[in-house]
Design goal:
globular; transferase (chains A, B); Carboh/pur_kinase_PfkB_CS (chains A, B); nine-stranded mixed β-sheet; homodimer; 305 residues; UDP-N-acetylmuramoyl-L-alanine:D-glutamate ligase; alpha/beta
């Protein structure tokens, strides 16, 4: 089953201890769509400016990402400039130029209106709601957000959250959204808002998934070189939803596998700048790293002792 | 097989956001021995002063901890005073009074000299080496240390490390000891010092184990209430070594199970102040939480998909 992604396509300028890249391909929807494209077909709704290089649209098309919903409008593409120190967990934003993204009003092409799998990447929650209202009856909706929306539009955000199956946010955002310092209490409060499953991203420490019945803990893959963490969360979400859309298995077991595939994709993405690593990645490499995750976390149960 | 523990027995004064306790039972060897006592017999070598309450020795004896090696000498017991904020990961030390611990020279009773399982809790690495030299041919040695010894006695510490099977330290200590910010590189450098296995404690994020062949990642148990993290690392090490000594299974699988049992013990210990939770803990509760760890981390392998 194909996935519909709504979010940002950007040109990023990134500085890490390992190098500098200027105006390279970025944006939440870009990372999400490319990662998901390893598992299923993807339809992208986003906006770029006249400066957006043709090579990037060619790359996205080469990944079987349908660009019917990618509008190109007068003006410049969303531009983000950031820096990471040796602690690669947190970006320092140096510049944000919304440009054409400032007046982005996502219009879902008629052909996408019956999308079954929908990801609302990090955009204004009022726009996320407009998208939700344009998609007839999605089977699975996942949603991301950020500290800015949690503080500036909490009510609009909570309405969106009450309608989604998976809220995928980081640890600090979970605490901010719930007002609870303890993560278990934060998770309970957020589930109380109506979302079915909460996935908490913890950077190099992995992911925790909470729902009414169970908790699942997945580590991050210990990497010797993290070149650029930009887009890791979106790449995770892309692998996660891509695998769910591929299998249609929404059981607890299916969701857990999807979380590992998401973690696998994120672990590859941070090995190089921008989407460079995903450009060379093959499915056998993905399966091999999934096996490494299995080896890394396996231990015998009490009954097997 | 019994375990020999050498380390500190202390009286702690602790303040957390959830309460205050004055001069309660503490010390690395105390937590270690009590935790290990759920799995095997324990022999304790440590020192206390004349002020050490009889109720504490009665408690330790009640756990089948042999106190032949616990000397009671003139003076006051080692006293630590610390405080935790809402971020319970890091203690702020307010006072440290070494007292009788300052002139502690561990003498291993003759009956313990053929100990097979030895834990060198966090003491001066020169004393750790003296202990190593008094124990004839231990099968398994585990060792802890702290930032103070890494910076003040790095050479003595490295000699100890080259002779142990398990170095159990926290993430910051691993980085400090190796001079590497990246944990995978830090682990390789530390394994290069001659230790067979490195266990990196990451507080609420769990544990990573590195050796020449494999990496194992274990999460921490997500708890709704963490009352007092004091002794969590020693309680982990106690459960870990206690289980190894109980089973004698030093295979990769056996070590992984031991890491989970250690994590189980630590997760209980932080639920109350001092050793209060361990005082009421039962083995069925330990097994039940081991099962919860299994449930929390399980997912199907690629071959099972």
């Amino acid at each position: 089953m194909s996935i519909l992604v709504v979010g940002s396509v950007a040109l990023d300028s990134v500085e890490t201890p390992f190098g500098v890249r200027d105006r390279v391909l970025g944006g939440s929807a870009t990372y999400f769509a490319t990662s998901a494209s390893f598992f299923t077909d993807v339809n992208l709704v986003a906006v770029v400016g006249e400066d957006f290089p043709e090579e990037h649209t060619r790359f996205l098309s080469s990944r079987n990402i349908d660009l019917t919903g990618l509008s190109r409008v007068p003006g410049e593409t969303f531009h983000w400039k950031g820096r990471y120190g040796y602690d690669l967990n947190e970006a320092q934003t140096l510049e944000t130029h919304l440009n054409v993204f400032e007046s982005f009003k996502p219009v879902i092409p008629a052909a996408y209106a019956d999308a079954q799998y929908l990801i609302l990447a990090n955009i204004d929650p009022e726009l996320q709601m407009e998208v939700l209202n344009q998609v007839k009856s999605p089977r699975v909706v996942a949603c991301d957000t950020m500290n800015f929306w949690i503080s500036s539009k909490p009510e609009a955000l909570k309405k969106v959250i009450s309608r989604v199956d998976f809220l995928i946010i980081n640890e600090g955002e979970a605490r901010q959204l719930s007002g609870e310092a303890n993560l278990v209490k934060a998770a309970r409060a957020i589930i109380g808002l109506g979302v079915k499953n909460l996935i908490v991203k913890r950077g190099e420490y992995g992911v925790l998934m909470f729902n009414g019945n169970s908790v699942f803990a997945a580590p991050a893959f210990p990497l010797e070189q993290v070149f650029d963490p930009t887009g890791a969360g979106d790449t995770f979400a892309g692998g996660f939803m891509g695998y769910l859309a591929n299998t249609g298995n929404l059981s607890d077991e299916g969701i857990r596998q999807a979380i590992i595939f998401g973690s696998v994709m994120a672990s590859f993405n941070v090995e190089d700048f921008s989407l460079e690593r995903l450009k060379t990645l093959s499915y056998p490499e993905i399966e091999a790293r999934y096996r490494s995750f299995k080896n890394m976390t396996h231990f015998q149960g009490v009954g097997e002792l």
